[in-house]
Amino acid sequence: MFGALPWVPKIRLHNPFLAFEVGDDFLASFYRAAEGKLSPYILVVEGSVPNERNKQEGYWASFGTDRVTGQPIPRCDWIDRLAPGAWAIVAAGTCATYGGIHAMQGNPTGAMGLPDYLGWQWKSGAGIPIVCIPGCPAQPDNITETLLYLLNQSAGRAPMIPLDDALFTG
Question: What CA–CA distance (Å, rounded) separates 127 from 74?
Fold first, then answer.
């Protein structure tokens, strides 16, 4: 996608299902972003966010292993590492936006949506609130249009993305 869309920045997609890289090679970009060496980037989160603080040990969800300890890296740790440097954050799907069915009372994971995890008033360094795209699944057209809007905004070709009280672009 390097330069294929006119008037928007070049796009490098880091998706575990579409990547050629695997293991540490795939995680390299995530580590660089967490270290402040990859900027700007849009973080897209799919799936509910488990509460990793509601148990004595273990983890609910992980992504990769820590280079030093060799232990799994909880998903929340990645969000904590990547959110501060993200130009924008998109919560894709009802689970990522509002917790979905996983957020029902009695679920031991304590799952929640990204706005509940980061805070409903959270804004990126660029002043952009979390952008929520609900749907189960989120519709591909909605995701594509939202990402394209944000890319145009980053290039100065669109104003601040309009969001309602539920952080939805509607």
Answer: 27
Bridge partners, 43 (sequence order): 89
pTM to 2 decimals? 0.92
Q: Could you tell me if 131 and 91 are in contact, meaning their C-beta atoms sit under 8 angstroms apart?
A: yes
Beta bridge partners of 129: 123
Q: In the predicted model, is pLDDT for residue 74 greater than 90?
A: yes
Per-residue tokens: 150: 């944000």
Burial of 77 (0-12, 13-18, 19+ CB in 10 A): middle
Other CB atoms within 10 Å distance of the CB of residue 163: 15
Q: Could you give the CA distance from residue 58 to residue 76 in angstroms, rounded to a whole number?
A: 13
Q: Specify whether the CB–CB gap between 133 and 91 falls below 8 A.
A: yes
The whole-angstrom separation of Cα 60 and Cα 103 is 14
Residue 125: predicted pLDDT? 93
Q: How far, in Å, CA of 163 to CA of 161, rounded?
A: 6
Q: Tokens for 132, please give them.
A: 């929520």
